[in-house]
């Protein structure tokens, strides 16, 4: 039996996780730096008044959306060159995306606590505002879980856009953009307190608020749909050597 | 386990276009195969089936007696190298080879460094800064150091200068002797690489024209030169793939088994018999009007 470390899916996981975390630190580092610059220059910006966990949730979603597109456009071709099956490439990339999303939540939480510590010893004032999911503050663990689930939706549907364009070319590729807007729209709306549908900051439609469980079930259903669709597309995908 | 590969009645369609038509052949360990064909003949498509990049529309590919598509045990043993543009890759050669090593269990990093030295590649060079020829050299390093039981080089000599190509050819011979495997060289540089081939596969418009040992192929090609009338009389009923006439002198290129008795008879009739290179055979066998004769 193979050692887990020698399994091709694990090697894919390792390779993707390291790459995405490395880029994430560069992006998040730039955002944290921007935070301090804005705090010094402007001072009363709403974004600055948020906790690091809340302030980083949107940038993390956008970051993972871009990572998803890159995963769809390049990973299949890249790993098949190394003799890795589609199934293992898919499993490794999915697990890595999930691990990156969770790790980023932990990093954001650590930054939140660091900012409190920084506040205690310097004149810096740490943000205290959090994102109210379904109109209520949810505490660190639940907020991180919801953030992670929403970020994972961005990753999966970014990935679908990437693989959609790679496998089905431009015209049908656009269909995946529409699908992503729809999926991201539904899941984002599930967690809003009022009646606004928000897609990447753009209010689009009106849906009534639901319970925590309904929001979780719908978000998980969208995630499951994304995973199944991605696997279906990957399973027998032809790869062009170029 | 001794590696064997068979292609049986392979058909591949891209919509209405038939890229490969009933292609059948087999390959065995320790041999270097020269896959030659004109542009668009279907060479890369054929190789991509072996590397599990896609599935055939019909027929079967077997490696160790099994279908390689999505077969992890086989895919790790097939190394398919083709020209890629590395201009956007920011990593260094060392990092690139490290990643290759992590996926190929037989990868020999020490040998990779030896080859790099021969090609003049440096570990800390960024891929984006490599010239086209150096990128090709890196692919040779990757392909040979991986020691995969099936190694496919698909036209990877782009941009390589003559000395680098010579290092590439020497390394193939050396590596094949040290670690026998199936090596497939898909190339347009027929005259330059012919000496590397143990076996020749000529693909033309999706059909396999020739599947024979190199020596047999070149032995079949002969040119008869002499008086036009005598040449015409001699070649009647034989497979003539090219003819050239200058005044009363004619040269006819034949592609068929030329026995010692034929050779003797030709000499007696005052005809000069000369051998034909693989490149010449390839050029003439793949001519439109020779299709019927050889197909």
Q: Topology, please?
A:
The complex is a heterodimer of chains A (242) and B (295).
Chain A lengths: L7 H34 L10 H4 L1 H25 L4 H36 L17 H52 L7 E2 L2 E2 L8 H24 L7
Antiparallel strand pairs in A: 1-2
Chain B lengths: L3 E11 L2 E12 L3 E6 L5 H8 L7 E6 L8 H4 L2 E5 L10 H11 L5 H11 L12 H14 L4 E5 L7 H17 L3 E5 L3 H4 L5 E6 L2 E7 H7 E7 H8 L4 E7 L2 E7 L4 H9 L3 E4 L2 H8 L5 H4 L1
Parallel strand pairs in B: 3-7, 3-8, 5-6, 6-7
Antiparallel strand pairs in B: 1-2, 1-4, 8-9, 10-12, 10-13, 11-12
Write a structural description.
The complex is a heterodimer of chains A (242) and B (295). With 242 residues, chain A is mostly helical. Helices cover 72% and strands 2% of the residues of chain A. In chain A, strand 1 (198-199) and strand 2 (202-203) form a beta hairpin. The radius of gyration of chain A is 19 Å and the shape is globular. Chain B has two domains: 4-205, 3-Layer(aba) Sandwich (Rossmann fold); 217-294, 2-Layer Sandwich (Alpha-Beta Plaits). Chain B has a six-stranded mixed beta sheet with strand order 5-6-7-3-8-9, with helices on both faces. In chain B, strands 11-12-10-13 form a four-stranded antiparallel beta sheet, sandwiched between helices. In chain B, strands 2-1-4 form a three-stranded antiparallel beta sheet, covered by helices on one side. The chains are: A mainly alpha (242), B alpha/beta (295).
What are the main properties of this structure?
heterodimer, A: 242 residues, mainly alpha, globular, B: 295 residues, alpha/beta, Rossmann fold, Alpha-Beta Plaits, 2 domains, six-stranded mixed beta sheet, 36% helix
């Amino acid at each position: 039996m193979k050692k887990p470390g020698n399994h091709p899916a694990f090697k894919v996981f390792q390779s993707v996780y390291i790459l995405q975390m490395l880029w994430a630190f560069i992006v998040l580092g730039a955002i944290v730096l921007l935070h301090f610059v804005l705090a010094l220059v402007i001072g009363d910006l709403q974004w600055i008044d948020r906790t690091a966990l809340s302030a980083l949730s949107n940038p993390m979603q956008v970051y993972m959306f871009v990572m998803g597109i890159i995963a769809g456009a390049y990973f299949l071709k890249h790993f098949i060159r190394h003799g890795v099956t589609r199934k293992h490439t898919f499993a490794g990339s999915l697990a890595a995306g999930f691990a990156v999303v969770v790790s980023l939540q932990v990093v954001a939480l650590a930054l939140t606590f660091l900012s409190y510590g920084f506040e205690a010893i310097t004149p810096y004032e740490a943000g205290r505002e959090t994102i109210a999911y379904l109109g209520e503050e949810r505490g660190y663990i639940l907020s991180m879980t919801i953030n992670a689930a929403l970020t994972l939706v961005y990753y999966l549907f970014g990935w679908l856009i990437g693989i959609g364009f790679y496998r089905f070319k431009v015209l049908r590729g656009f269909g995946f953009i529409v699908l992503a807007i729809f999926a991201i729209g539904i899941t984002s709306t599930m967690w809003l307190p009022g009646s606004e549908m928000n897609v990447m900051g753009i209010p689009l439609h009106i849906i009534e608020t639901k319970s925590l469980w309904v929001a979780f079930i719908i978000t998980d259903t969208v995630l499951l749909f994304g995973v199944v669709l991605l696997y279906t597309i990957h399973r027998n995908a032809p790869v062009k050597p170029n | 386990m001794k590696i064997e590969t068979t292609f049986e009645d392979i058909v591949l369609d891209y919509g209405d276009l038939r890229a490969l038509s009933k292609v059948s052949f087999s390959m065995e360990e320790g041999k270097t195969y020269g896959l030659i064909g004109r542009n668009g003949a279907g060479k890369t498509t054929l190789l991509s089936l072996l590397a599990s990049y896609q599935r055939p529309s019909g027929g079967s590919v077997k490696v160790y007696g099994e279908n390689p598509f999505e077969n992890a045990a086989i895919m790790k043993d097939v190394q398919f190298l083709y020209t890629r543009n590395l201009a956007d890759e920011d990593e260094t050669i060392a990092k690139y080879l490290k990643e290759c090593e992590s996926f190929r269990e037989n990868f020999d990093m020490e040998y990779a460094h030896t080859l790099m030295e021969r090609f003049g590649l440096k570990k800390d060079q960024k891929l984006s800064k490599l010239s086209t020829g150096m990128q090709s050299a890196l692919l040779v390093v990757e392909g040979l150091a991986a020691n995969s039981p099936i190694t496919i080089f698909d036209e990877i000599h782009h941009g390589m200068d003559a000395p680098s190509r010579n290092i590439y050819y020497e390394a193939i011979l050396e590596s094949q002797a040290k670690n026998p495997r199936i090596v497939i060289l898909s190339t347009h540089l027929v005259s330059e690489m012919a000496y590397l081939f143990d076996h020749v596969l000529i693909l033309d418009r999706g059909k396999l024209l020739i599947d024979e040992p190199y020596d047999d192929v070149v032995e079949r090609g002969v040119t008869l030169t002499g008086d036009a009338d005598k040449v015409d009389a001699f070649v009647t009923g034989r497979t003539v793939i090219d003819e050239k006439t200058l005044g009363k002198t004619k040269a006819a290129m034949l592609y068929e088994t030329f026995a010692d008795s034929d050779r003797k008879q030709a000499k007696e009739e005052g005809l000069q018999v000369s051998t034909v290179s693989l490149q010449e055979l390839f050029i003439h066998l793949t001519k439109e009007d020779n299709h019927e004769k050889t197909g």
